[in-house]
Amino acid sequence: MERYDLVVIGAGPGGYEAALEAAGLGLRTALIERRQLGGTCLNRGCIPTKALAHAAGLYAELSACGRFGLSAEQLRCDPAALAAYRQSTVETLRGGIALRLKQKKVDLFQGSGLVTAPHRVRVEPPQGGALELEAQNILVAAGAKPAVPPIPGAQLPGVMTSDELLEWGGPPFGTLLVIGGGVIGVEFASIYAALGSRVVILEALDGLLANLDRELGQSLKLLFKKRGVQVHTGARVEALEPAGEKGRLCCRYTEKGVPAECGADAVLLAVGRTPCGLGAFAPGVAPASEKGRLLVNSAFATSLPGVYAIGDAIGGAQLAHLATAQGLAVVRALAGKAPGLRLDVVPACVYTEPEIASVGLSADEAKARGLAVQSKKYPMSANGRSVLTGQERGFIKVVYDPAGRAVLGAQLMCARATDLVGEFGLAIANGLTVEQMAAAIRPHPTFSEGISEVLRSC
After folding, report:
1. Cβ neighbour number for residue 119 with a 10 Å cutoff
2. Catalytic annotation on 444?
3. Separation between Cα atoms, residue 298 and residue 159, nearest integer Å
4. Rounded Cα distance, 44 and 110, in Å
5. 339: pLDDT confidence band, cut at 50, 70 and 90?
6. pLDDT averaged over every residue in the chain
7. Number of domains in the chain
8. 84 and 170 co-located in one domain
9. Which domain holds residue 425?
């Protein structure tokens, strides 16, 4: 039986980065993955989605290049070439992970990993021939899968989760119906609208991106409306049915209590993701759980001795970078080192057009906690780089303590928001004040000048 200091189940961002860190700290490490290296993020989530978003953004920009004095003829979307670009991006990054694991001497096992007892893991390769590993510690990073709601007709042809939609190799749909107005739903809506599809979003809650500052969702809804995307909030789906035309679908729903229906060529189910952590345990061995998510303490330890869990498997914010940070924290603790990361300062990013990002507290969240805060907003319509690149509605908002002047949060909706938000995360993690952030000179003309402007207004 092979013996390891750490066995990691799941090679997504949380798992493979933890394995690399552990090996770098001198721990003999094994990594088990039943599908492809990189997990959901690389193969069925973050990377392929953002590759499509990049391509769709270029398509939309070229379609409107006349405003810059340019012209483009015979512009079209080549579905096969688009799929090839997406796949080559994934394979390039997957190869990079494999090389890093080899360089760090992490033992990689292909197959399903099952915890059979404390300190015991069975690997079940797809070709058969199970083997047993002994581990001083086990880290479960099994991720999550798309949730399929109990809607009549959810299994009909043409009804897809994000996994199936990413594998779609055909042309953009005439009409795409998106059920769910969270991050996954609005990202795919933005992509397909840019590629020329008619997009309809049905969201059961009162607004888009309900987990973020409400102004972000409100502004995105206005932009979607301008681009022809129909957004229905307070909409509850009753059933999906075949429509009269071959291959078409009909969705029956109620919007604020009023019955309605919508026809579509395809339907995306984007109502969240279900944790897969329990699938990493043999029958009768699973630790404490709740609604499918593994329960852990502040050190990410489960109720089984020596077994830890991170990422989507434990619920909470389902973000690749958070899973990575949690995995690094576990490994560094096992090696007797400080975490090195602030796990309470986690940026959230949405890759629509324009991008959306948030970190720290919103003004509403701060007030709900009884904190006295102030917020200031700078409209990016006054930013030189935004004007010359033809950006639409956008802003940068900062939330701060009026007494001590510490930066407490920020919400951004503008070009490169997902890059700019890192400045605010750094400030919050280090307790910087508005004045300390504002002391830096930011180059002109850049989107980052918007940060200086909003800070100077505080």
Report:
1. 19
2. yes
3. 39
4. 18
5. confident
6. 95
7. 3
8. no
9. 354-456
Question: C-alpha angle with apex 247: 242 to 251, nearest 5 degrees?
Answer: 40
Which listed residue (54, 119, 232, 444) is catalytic? 444
Residue 183 sits in the same domain as residue 71: no
> What pLDDT digit, counting tens, does each position of 249-267 carry?
999 999 988 999 999 999 9
Domain end marker among 217, 243, 271: 271
- Three-state SS for the chain is CEEEEEEEECCCHHHHHHHHHHHHCCCCEEEEECCCCCHHHHHHCHHHHHHHHHHHHHHHHHHCHHHHCCCCCCCCCCHHHHHHHHHHHHHHHHHHHHHHHHHCCCEEEECEEEEEECCEEEEECCCCCCEEEEEEEEEECCCEEECCCCCCCCCCCCEECHHHHHCCCCCCCCEEEEECCCHHHHHHHHHHHHCCCEEEEEECCCCCCCCCCHHHHHHHHHHHHHCCCEEEECEEEEEEEECCCCCCEEEEEEECCEEEEEEECEEEECCCEEECHHHHECCCCCCCEECCEECCCCCCECCCCCEEECHHHHCCCCCHHHHHHHHHHHHHHHCCCCCCCCCCCCCEEECCCCEEEEEECCHHHHHHCCCCCEEEEEEHHHCHHHHHCCCCCCEEEEEECCCCCEEEEEEEEECCHHHHHHHHHHHHHCCCEHHHHHCCCCCCCCCCHHHHHHHHCC
Identify the domain boundary among 233, 256, 271: 271
Question: How much is the pTM?
Answer: 0.94
In a domain, 9, yes or no: yes
Q: Give domain status of residue 346, yes or no.
A: no
Q: Are residues 266 and 281 in the same domain?
A: no
Whether 7 and 137 share a structural domain: yes
pLDDT at 21: 97
**Is 193 part of a structural domain of the chain?**
yes
Q: Mark whether 24 and 140 lie in a shared domain.
A: yes
Q: What is the CATH number of the domain that holds 80?
A: 3.50.50.60
Residues 278 and 261 in one domain: no
228 shares its domain with 291: no
| Phi and psi angles of residue 19, each rounded to the nearest 5 degrees, phi first | -65, -40
Same domain, yes or no: 133 and 116: yes
Evaluate whether residue 177 is within a structural domain.
Answer: yes
Sorted by sequence, the CB contacts under 8 Å of residue 354 that are 6+ apart come out as 223, 391, 392, 393, 394, 413, 414, 415, 417
